[in-house]
Amino acid sequence: MTPFAPARLLPLVLLLTALLFALPAAAQSGPGAVAPGGGGGAPAQPGLEGQTPSPDVRSPADVPLYIPHDGRVQGRISIPDPALATLIQPGGRDWRGFRMDWLQWIGGVVILGALAALAVFYFWRGPITIERGRARRWVPRFNSIDRFAHWTTALGFIALMLSGLVLTFGRFVLIPIMGHGSFAPLADWSKYLHMASSVPFVLGLLLMLGLWIRDNIPTRADLIWLRQAGGLFSRHSVHPESGRFNAGQKGLFWLVVLGGLAMALTGYLLMTPFYYTGIAGMQIIHIIHALLAMVLTAVIFGHIYIGTVGMEGAFDAMGRGVVDENWAIEHHKGWYDEQCRAGRIIPGDRMPQAGDD
Amino acid sequence: MLTKRRPKTPGTPLSDALRSVDAGGPGRRAFLKAAGVTAGGLAGLGALGGGMMRKAGADSMMPGVERVLRKNVCTHCSVGCTVVAEVQNGVWVQQEPGWDSPISQGTHCAKGASVRELVKGERRVKYPLKLVDGEWTRVSWEQAIDEIGARLLAIRDTYGPDSVFWLGSAKFSNEGAYLLRKFAAFWGTNNVDHQARICHSTTVAGVANTWGYGAMTNSYNDIQHSRCLVIIGGNPAEAHPVAMQHMLRAKERNRAPWIVIDPRFTRTAAHATEYVRIRPGTDIPVVWGLLWHIFQNGWEDKDYIARRVYGMDAIRAEVAKWTPDVVEQVSGVPAEQLLRVARAMAENKPATLIWCMGATQKTVGTANVRAFSILQLALGNIGVPGGGANIYRGHTNVQGATDMGLDVSTLPSYYGLAEGAWRHWARVWDVPYEYMLSRFGSKELMEAKGIPTTRWFDAALAEAGELDQPNPIRGLVVMGHGGNTVTRMPDMLKGMEKLDLLVVVDPHPTSFAAVRQRRDGSYILPACTQFETDGSRVASNRSVQWGQRVVDPIFESKDDYEIMYLLARRLGFADELFKHIKVNGTNPVPEDILREINRGCLSTGYTGQSPERLKLHMIYQHTFDRITMQATEGPLKGEYYGLPWPCWGHPEWRHPGSPVLYDTSKHVMEGGGTFRARFGIEREGETLLAEGSFSKGSEIEDGYPEFTMAVLRKLGWDAELTAEERRVIELIGGDNIDDVSWATDLSMGIIRIAIKHGCLPYGNAKARAVAWNLPDPVPVHREPIYSARPGLVGDFPSYDDRRDFRLPLLNHAVQKAALEADVPSKFPFIYTSGRLVEYEGGGEETRSNRWLAELQQSMFVEINTGDAERLGVREGEYVWVVSPEDGRAKIKALVTDRVGPGVVFLPFHFSGFWQGEDLRGQYPPGTDPFVLGEPANGVTTYGYDPVTCMQETKVTLCRIEKA
Amino acid sequence: MARMVFLCDGERCIECNACVTACKNEHEVPWGINRRRVVTLNDGRPGERSISMACMHCTDAPCAAVCPVDCFYRTDEGVVLHSKDLCIGCGYCFYACPFGAPQYPRATLFGSRGKMDKCTFCAGGPHADNSPEEYAAYGTNRLAEGKLPLCAEMCSTRALLAGDRDEVADIYRERSARRGYGSGAWGWSVAYTADRGGAYAPGGRALEEPERTS
C-alpha cells in the first residue's frame, strides 16, 4: 500500500465515523431542549412562568396567544416511548426545507447537470475510439465472478435509483401525469423495491470490494493520470500509463464502495426507526442519504456513459468479460504488460474467443 | 390538495356549544338531539381495504345501526361522573360525554373515559372457576354455589359464624352494600368490612366525632364558592381529576390562593400557588403550627367558636406548644411559609380544606382528621358554602357503602351494634330480634366490633385463645376487593395458607386469586360490573345517583344481588333475607332493596331518595345549576342534584337534600342544618348544645337535643302526631315510648314534627373540639411507628398497646422494638405511597384495561434526583426496596424531584409480581391483567389507627439497593 | 366556514390522560398508536406543566407538504386528513411534523410500518361520512354529526379546547384575563401563525387565510 492511501481515505472515514457518533446525540438533545431532569431555577421555556395573577393581564387583549417555540421542547411521558416525550420539534421545519426545496434543486441540478454535461462532452469530444482500431484479439479482463459482482451491484443500484427518484420527484413529475390513484401503488412498490434491492446492492458491493480492492490501491502513477485528467479532455489520444484500473476507475470504485456502504448504512438506519436514533437523527440521516444518492446518481450516469457510448470497446469488459487487445494496450498498458509477463496473454497470438467476428 | 370534502354544517353552531361548555351552560344536549345521523349501511363491511385499524368485531360500533343512550355512573372514584353509553343491539359501542351532569359536566379522567372496556371484558373472569390441585378449573354456577355453601356451613358448624370473613366492596351499589351487610347479619357475624376501612375510616370517625356525620360537608361544585383552597395529603389531579375543574375555576375566578401541603410535589401541587413540603407524618404539627399563627394574630372566628364549638380552649393549650420553630424542627416547614399559609386562610374566607388518604392512612389518621376539623372550626369555615371539610372519598360508592354499614362496627346508617340498633333493624327487616340473636355465636359477639379487613390475616394466623372470638378466621369471601390492598403482605400471604375456603366474587380474578400459596379450596365467581346492573351510588358529596343497566351481564357473570341471593338460598336464609324484597326468579329487584333502605336509614336521612326520585334526577340532570347543584327549572325545581343526604322524611315530602352540611343559613326543609347533638347535652358542667346558633326558621332559637318522644312531649308537640304515627311509635316503644327517637321511629312522625317547627331531628349542638371518647381527646402529634427521627419518638411516642377489634394492637411495642433494633439507620428512606391517575385501588381491573394499561406499563419507585445520584441509580434501572419487616420488592427507579431527598414514593396499584418473581402463570388463563408489578404493600409495615384499625401506608421506612 | 383548531391550556391541564383514553375508546385505537398524548414539562418542579398534544391541523401542514404521494388533504373546516388508501407508510410526515403526531402501527424492521395513522379531529377520512369503511380505517366521524372531538369534549378540566379558531382563542383569552395569567397556547405559533418570516417558519409561505396574532 502506498503512503497516499490512508491519507486519501481519511477524511471520508472520519466524516462517516463522526456522523455515526453524532447522530444519536443529535437525536437526543436539540437546541433549547427542556431536559427532563436537568437543573432547577427559572423555567427555560416560555409559558412556564408562575401562576400568580399579573398586573399586565387586564383584558383579553393583553393575553399572549402565540408564544414562539423555536427550540425543541422535551418533557416526560409515562408511556415508555421516548419519541412521544418530545412535545415540539421545530427541526422538522429544517428537514422540510431540505426535502422540499434543497433536495429538489440539488437533485435536479446534479442529475440534469450530469446528463447535460455528458451530452456536451459527447458532442464536443465524441466517443473515445480505439486509436489503432480493433485488434480483434481478445484479452480476458473480468471473469464471471467479477461480472456477477458488478451486475448485481449495478442492477441493485438502478433499482434503488429509479425507486428513489420515484419517491423523491414522483409527486411533482408523475402525479400530474398518472394521478394519485395510480401513483400511490407505484410509490408503494417503489418503497418495497427500494428496500429489497438494497440487499443485492450491498452484497454486490461487498463482493466487488473483496475482488478488486487490491487493484484499486492508489499508486504514484495515478497522480500522472490525474494530472492529465486521464486524457479525457485532450482531443488527441493521450493515454497516461495505468494498471488494471486507472485513477478514474479507482476513484469510482472508492466512491461507489464507500458511498454505497454509507447509503446502505443510512438506509438501514432509516428502516429501523428509533432503534438507534431519535427523530433528529433520522432527519440528518435522511439528508445524508438523499445528498449522497444524488451524487452517486450523477457519478453513475458518467460511469454508464463511459462504459457504453462514451468509449469504444469499454462495454466488452463487463459485457463479455474480454477486451480488445488494442483497447487494453491503449487504456491499461501497465495491466496489459503484466498480463503478458504473467503469460496470460501471448502478444500476437490469436486468442480463442467467442464473439469473435 | 387532493380532494375537498363537501362542507359539513353542524346541527348547532359549534361556538355556542363551546362557550356554554366553558361557562357551564346547557352543554351539548342540543348536539345530542341533533345527532341522529344514520347513513351508509353494512354492505361494505366485508370489503375493507388496506389501512384498516381494526376488525369489525362484535363490540365495534356499526355505523348506521340505531344507538340507544343509557346513563350510568363511573365506577372508579367518588366524584360520580355520569357515563353515557351508546348501545347498539345490546352491545355498548361508544361513550358520549355526560354533558348534563352537574358534577362532571361532560368530563372524565383517563379511567372514566375508558370504562366501556370493562364491559368488553377482554381479561374478565368469564365463568366460575375452582382451584383443583393448583389448576383453575371451570365449573358450573350450580356446582360452585353448592360447594361453597357446603364449605361455609361446615366452617360454621365447626368454628362458628365468626370464622368466616365477609369482605364487601365500595364498588357495590348502595343496594349491594346494604344487602351484604344484611347478609352478614343473617349469617351471624360482624366480621364484614369493605374498602372504607383502608381509605377514609379515620375520616368518618374523626369528623363524625367532631360534628356528627362522617362525610364530606360540602361538594365538589361548592368549592367554586371558595376563596382559598388548602389541600393536605391529597392529590386530586390524579385521584379525583374531574374535581379539579371545580377547584381550578375557584382558583381562577376567585383568584383564590391554592395551597398544597404534601411530602410529594404532586400533579396537584403543580397548580398550587403555594407548595408546602412536609416530612411525612407531621400533619398535626403543621396544622397546629397554622393554628398557632391564627390564635396569635386573633384570626380565629371568635363568635362562631362561642356559639358553635365546644372545647376550643383545650386546643389553644395544645397549640401553644407548637411555636413556629418547633414546627419547623419537627416538620421541616419554614416558619415564614407557615405564616403565609395561615394568613392566606385567614384573609380569604371562606377557605376550604381538602384532604385525602395522605392524612387518613396513618396510625394517627383519626387524630389528623380531628386536627383538620378543628382548624376549620377555628376559622368558622364549617357549615358555610365555599368552606367545609371537603373529604374526597376514594371509590365510586365508598360513601354509600359506609353509610350502608358495610363495616365491622355498625349496622346500616351508623346505628352501631348495641341491642337497640339490632332491634331497630330487626323491625325494618320484619324478623324477630330473637331470630337475629340466634344467628350469632352469642349476644356479646353480636354487639362486638368485628375484625377489620386490615387485619383479617392476623385473625387467620392467630391461635384460638388470642382472639376475642371463639376461633380464627377459616373462610374468606371477597366481593370486589383486591388482595394487595392491605399492608404487611408477607403476613397476609401466610394468612392465605391458613384458610379452608377462599371465595373471590369479582369481574377480575384479583390478586387474591393469583398467589402461589393456595392449591385447593379457592373459587372465583364472575361478578358483573355496575354497568351490567341497576343500582344507586353515592358520590363523595352525598349525592345519590341511579345507575342504569347499560348491557346485560356479559359471559356467565351475574350481578351482586343475584350472587348473594344464590348463596343465601344455599345457606338457608334467603326467605328471611329477602322477606320484603321482590325476587324475580333468582334476581332480587334493586329498587325494592332501596325502598327498604329508605324505610330504615332514618339517622342519615336516606329516606327521601326513593328509586323513582333518583331516576328522575338522572333524567332531568340538565335542569340543575352547575355550581349550586339546585334545579332551577322543570319538575325538580328547588331540589339538589342527587338529593344529598340527609334528605329527610318520606319521598313525598320532597325534601331537596342537603348540599352543605350544618349550614344554618338555610331552613331545614331547604337543606339547612346544625351540628348534630350526638354526645349528650352537657359535659363537666359545660353545655354541648349550640348557643344562640340555629338553622333558619327554627322555632327553637338556641341549641336543642335530638328529638325523642320525651322531647316532643316536653315541647308539647307530640299532639301533632297522626294516629298512625302514634300507633307505630307505640308499637316500637312498647312500655317506654319516651325512648323512641327520631332515628328509630319508623313512621317518621317525630322527624316530620321537628322539621315542621324548623328544627333538625338530630338536635342542635356544638361541634366538639375535644372528643373525650377518643384515645387523644385533643389531637397530639405522634411519630410514625417507623420514624426517621428517633430523637423525636421519646417526646411523641405512638399509642399505648391495647386490645380492640378482637385483636391486640401493638403500636407502641413495635415502635420501641424498631428503635432498639436501630432501624432508622439501616433503613434510611421514608416510604410513602399513593395513586396514579390511570389506575385505581388494587389495580387489577384497570390494569386489565388495555387503554389504561398502555399508559403505565410498569411499577416504579420515585427516588429523588440527589438520592439517585448518590446511590448510582439511573432512571429505569431496577432497585430493591427493602422493608424493615420481611418484605422486599424489585422495582424500576423513576428519578424525579417530585419526592424530596430521603423520601421514596410507590404507587399502590400493582400486583402480580412477588419479590422479583412473575406470578402471571398463577392467574386463571386469559384473565391476567396486561400490566403486572410488585405490590407496594409488599414492603409496608405494622401500624394501625387505634380508633378504626386503619393501616399505615403513608409513612414507614425502607432501604433502596441496586438490583 | 369555521376553522377547526385544538388549544391546550397549560394552566389547566393536569395530565389526567382522559383525552388519551377517550381517543382510544372512541376510535378503538390499537396499543402502540397514540393519536393523542400528554407530555409533562419541568416534571416535579415548580413551573411543571402538562400539555396534551395531537395533530394540530396546521395551516401549512408540514406532513402534507412532504408527503411523497400527496395523500393529505384539508377539509373546508381546516382539518388536515389523509387517505390511507394512498399512504405508503414512508414516515416522512413524522420527520416533518413539529408535534410528533403521525403514528405507525409497526415502527419496526424494514420499514413495513403500515399505514400512517393520526388524529383526525374526529372527522374520519376520505370515505363517505360514518360509512363502515371510514369507521374501520379512521374511526368515527363526530364532526359530521355536529359533535366535536371527544378528547376535548371529555377533558376533565376543560384544558383542551377544540373548535373554531376564533372562538377557541376568545375563550382562552377571556379565561386567561379572568385569572390574570396565561402561558400562551402551546404550539399555536408553530401550527397557525405566519408572521415570523422565512419559508418554513411556522405557518410559512402558503397561508390560505390571513392570520390574527397578538
Strand content of chain A: under 5%
User: Percentage of helical residues of chain B?
Assistant: 25-40%
CATH homologous superfamily title of the domain at 128-143 and 213-357 in chain A? Transmembrane di-heme cytochromes, Chain C
Name the strands of the widest sheet of chain B in spatial order. Answer: 5-4-16-15-14-6-7
By CATH, the topology of the domain at 129-189 and 398-588 in chain B is Rossmann fold
Topology-level CATH name of the domain at 128-143 and 213-357 in chain A: Fumarate Reductase Cytochrome B subunit
Say what oligomer this is. Answer: heterotrimer
Task: Determine the mean pLDDT of chain B.
Answer: 91
Q: Provide the CATH top-level class of the domain at 129-189 and 398-588 in chain B.
A: Alpha Beta
CATH first level of the domain at 128-143 and 213-357 in chain A = Mainly Alpha
Summarize the main sheet of chain B. 7 strands, mixed
Order of helices and strands of chain A: HEEHEHHHHHHHEHH
Q: How many β-strands of chain A, per DSSP?
A: 4
Shape of chain A: elongated
Q: Mind summarizing the main beta sheet of chain A?
A: 2 strands, antiparallel
Report the mean per-residue pLDDT of chain A as an integer.
Answer: 80
